[in-house]
Amino acid sequence: MDKKKHGDAAKLRGRGSCKMPFSESLQQQASANEEGDGPVAKRLVAAIKKHGHRKVVNLQDVIDGRAAAAEQQKTVVSKEGLARLYPAHAAYVFTQNQVSVIAEQITALDEMTPFAEIVSRAQDLYLPSGPPMSPLTRSYFTSWAFFDACVGPASETIGTCIIEVGRALGMDTGLLRLIQVMQRSRMGVYVYEGSHAGLVTLRELVTDSVCRAIVPAAHGGQVGELWYVRVLPPPAPGIVEHVAFTTPYVLLEPSVAEWQAYFRRTVPEAPPQVRLDAYERHMKYGPTRTYWNDFVFEGYVTHRTEAIFLAGLPDVPESRPHSEANNRHFRQ
Q1: pTM score, two decimals?
Q2: Which residues pair with 311 in a beta bridge?
Q3: Which residue(s) pair with 304 in the sheet?
């Protein structure tokens, strides 16, 4: 899959990228944003309170899920559809759907123009729809667009803005909490360590944290396999399963040792908590806005319904099959 818009990609990568000192905690940053410290969220809430909802279909009805928002809710998975899913997965699918409906409404407002432009450019660049059109699946891309694509020094996202609007308009506290959980989430590199009773055991390569997760995509995996995937925690008390929310990207090559060397290069040596914060920020935001999107797009090798297979490292362009470096070599 060759990328043809490298000029646009460079602009998208460089413009408004979010950088912070490695010592600042990702968790602290997320908490600060959720408390309304982000300037975009403040302006957005102020505009809604001052001018009402002149540019959007009654936003309060969207927040409340009332009949006036029925047209927007057509895109949401039905109750019958949710009932066929694992409870843990269903909770997050419903939450993601509601975020999508609200995002469509608020990105029509002037205050949200930076986000609308970022997502629009990325859609044009990557054509996210899953293979064979693009290796960026809808679940991967929408999670990035809502929760990772940040602007400004406060690292605000569409998700953090929705959290503040939800608070201002009285969103259901359970839904608000799940949006916060998804906002705090990130992709990670995991080692597949086997399965039992329908759950897979995943160990994160850098943190060594272990979880047992539902894999809705139904990829069985092989012991020792590396996955690049967004794993969400159990959504409610009484549910113990994590959720591999995105279709697993299986990292065919290089080896585990070379990925460990990659993280030693990109995450500086430091006291444990500082290094963990740096790792979390690297995985969520990358050094540039499209860093991980480019890795997925350019690393594509092949796919099956239940998994997508990648090769290469994010910081070694020549290692990725569809990188511009390899395209130049092929043209010569």
Answers
A1: 0.86
A2: 253
A3: 307
